[in-house]
């Protein structure tokens, strides 16, 4: 077990604790124990954060790119040095197995390193006219960013939210999730310890809707960055639209996985089963709807269920644990009700379909097959450890199912036929596609969706350009 750190707001480089502020409890999802007391920002705190962000922006936008890069590199190094400690804090507040938490911290470090390089490659261009006149296209940081990160990846989500803006020369006020605050604070602290000024990277907590209304209602904030549900995303997009603020929206998904009958079933299962239950399925790019071609359907479905039943569920601190608890009490409640609805409508429950133990937010790795399309779980993001497996006759039917929903985040296809891979890639409505694999995320590739999964990208060069404005300068010689 780990000592859980005391919690604070991070405003202007100062750690502001619970004294005189409303508080919220932080709960260990494996034990339901209260492990921390989190201060909520008052309206005055938020005004101070905004003033700082305004000042910080003026400093950071004028800080030369190599100096910004050095700070990001140093923060990456600090995250690596602190990764064991941060991973244990992450497991305590979020539940996932410690090695998964450590992987998250290391990914965050790699992202800062990537952005350190990328911030030195913010090039404009010059248009030279035949008469000797010229126009310059220049990039400028958009301004202070208000960023809201969820609880499922408490390190990566915060690193994504702050990394792009800082690389671009923006200041940022981030709200890590109130349920997983200490990991987000550790990421921000690494940046401050690395030399990012306290006015440039700040962290606040409170009632999410109060904070987002306050920050987005301020003319100081020039950009919104949000990761979370489509429903909240639409609400925040409207708030941002009132101030015509730029926005990056990374919202829900319902990942279709097309498995064609030219594949070896065990080869596919070896990869998709661990991917499905990673982070107890609480992953926006989780493979969810398994769209399986007729002749391999039974073998795939039964093999999936056998493997799901073998997954070791337990406290994320136990070395034997392969899947931890869900992150909060809402998740098993939602999964339970979605599975009951699917069962009532005729789905077969081949694995799981029940809670595990009577303490903590544990839910068994579950497999549902022959799930009617009208079941809620086939239409709403389950965000939990549930695989939905259905049978389809051919490529057209499989693609129709893949594109049936409004979600368009990650999609997966498994086939040995190269021409079919190309057809499927073109036809599929998604921001990210994995072919014969399960990974859709890399620090140097844009991460984001289409349709109701949002717009804009994080990671990759696009994670920086998303925080830049263009200025065309027409100079008369
Ligand atoms: P939720 O939809 O209320 O919250 C999702 C996230 O948005 C949380 O981090 C929350 O703090 C934040 N949030 C909520 N209202 C906000 C507001 N007005 N302003 C700013 N931030 C706000 O509920 P939840 O139970 O936390 O999550 C439920 C669903 O959210 C999941 O089923 C899943 O679909 C989605 N989700 C997606 C991601 C992702 O990575 N895309 C991450 C977490 C949750």
Write a brief caption for the model.
By secondary structure, the chain is of the alpha/beta class. It contains 14 helices and 22 strands. It comes from Alteriqipengyuania halimionae.
Please describe what this structure looks like:
The protein has a 7-stranded mixed sheet with strand order 14-15-16-13-12-18-19, with helices on both faces. Strands 9-8-7-10-11-21 form a 6-stranded mixed sheet, sandwiched between helices. A 3-stranded antiparallel sheet has the order 5-6-22, with no helix packed on it. The chain contains 14 helices and 22 strands. The chain has 477 residues and is α/β, with parallel strands linked by helices. The protein has helices spanning 43-61, 65-81, 83-94, 98-118, 156-168, 181-193, 208-216, 230-242, 265-277, 297-309, 330-344, 395-402, 418-427, 460-465, and strands spanning 9-11, 14-16, 23-27, 34-39, 125-128, 134-141, 145-148, 172-175, 201-203, 223-227, 246-250, 255-259, 287-293, 348-351, 366-369, 386-392, 407-408, 410-414, 432-435, 450-451, 454-455, 468-475. The model has no long low-confidence stretch (mean pLDDT 97). It has 2 domains: 9-251 and 453-474, Aldehyde Dehydrogenase, Chain A, domain 1, CATH 3.40.605; 255-443, 3-Layer(aba) Sandwich (Aldehyde Dehydrogenase, Chain A, domain 2), CATH 3.40.309.10. It binds nicotinamide-adenine-dinucleotide. Residues 148, 150-152, 177, 208-209, 212, 227-229, 231-232, 235-236, 250-252, 284, 330, 381, 383 line the site of nicotinamide-adenine-dinucleotide.
Tell me the β content.
15-25%
* Subunit organisation of the chains: single chain
- Major sheet: order of its strands? 14-15-16-13-12-18-19
Count of individual domains: 2
CATH topology of the largest domain: Aldehyde Dehydrogenase, Chain A, domain 1
Domain Aldehyde dehydrogenase: 22-473
Organism: Alteriqipengyuania halimionae
Keywords: Oxidoreductase
Family: Belongs to the aldehyde dehydrogenase family.
């Amino acid at each position: 077990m780990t000592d859980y750190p005391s919690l604070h707001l991070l405003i202007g480089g100062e750690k502001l604790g619970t004294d005189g502020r409303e508080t919220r409890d932080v709960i260990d999802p494996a034990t339901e124990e209260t492990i921390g007391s989190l201060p909520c920002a008052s309206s005055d705190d938020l005004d101070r954060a905004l003033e700082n962000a305004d000042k910080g922006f003026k400093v950071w936008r004028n800080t030369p790119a190599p100096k910004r890069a050095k700070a990001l590199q140093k923060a990456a190094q600090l995250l690596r040095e602190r990764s064991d400690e941060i991973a244990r804090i992450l497991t305590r507040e979020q539940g996932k197995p410690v090695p998964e938490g450590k992987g998250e911290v290391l990914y965050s470090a790699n992202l800062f390193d990537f952005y350190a390089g990328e911030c030195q490659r913010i090039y404009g261009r010059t248009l030279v006219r035949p008469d000797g006149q010229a126009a310059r296209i220049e990039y400028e940081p958009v301004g202070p960013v208000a960023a809201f990160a969820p609880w499922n990846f408490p390190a990566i989500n915060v690193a994504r939210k702050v990394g792009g803006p800082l690389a671009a020369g923006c200041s940022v006020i981030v709200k890590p999730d109130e349920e997983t605050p200490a990991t987000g604070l550790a990421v921000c602290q690494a940046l401050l310890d690395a030399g990012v000024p306290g006015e440039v990277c700040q962290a606040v907590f409170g009632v999410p809707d109060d904070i987002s209304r306050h920050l987005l209602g301020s003319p100081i904030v020039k950009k919104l960055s949000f990761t979370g549900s489509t429903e909240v995303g639409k609400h925040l997009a409207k708030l941002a639209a009132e101030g015509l603020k730029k926005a990056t929206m990374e919202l829900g998904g319902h990942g279709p996985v097309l498995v064609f009958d030219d594949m070896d079933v065990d080869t596919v299962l070896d990869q998709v089963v661990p991917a499905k239950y990673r982070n107890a399925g609480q992953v926006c790019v989780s493979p969810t709807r398994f769209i399986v071609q007729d002749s391999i359907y039974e073998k795939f479905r039964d093999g999936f269920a056998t493997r799901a039943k073998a997954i070791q569920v337990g406290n994320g601190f136990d070395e034997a644990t392969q899947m931890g608890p869900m992150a909060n009490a809402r998740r098993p409640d939602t999964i339970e009700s979605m599975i009951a609805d699917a069962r009532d409508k005729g789905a077969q429950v081949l694995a799981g379909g029940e809670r595990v133990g009577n303490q903590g937010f544990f839910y068994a790795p579950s497999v549902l097959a022959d799930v009617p399309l009208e079941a809620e779980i086939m239409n709403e993001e389950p965000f939990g450890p549930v695989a939905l497996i259905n049978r389809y006759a051919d490529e057209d039917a499989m693609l129709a199912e893949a594109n049936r929903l409004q979600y368009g985040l990650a999609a997966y296809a498994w086939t040995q036929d190269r021409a079919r891979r190309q057809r499927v890639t073109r036809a599929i409505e998604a921001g990210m596609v994995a072919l014969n694999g399960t990974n859709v995320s890399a620090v140097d590739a844009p991460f984001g969706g289409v349709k109701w999964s949002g717009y804009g990208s994080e990671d990759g060069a696009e994670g920086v350009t998303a925080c830049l404005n263009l200025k065309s300068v027409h100079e008369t010689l």
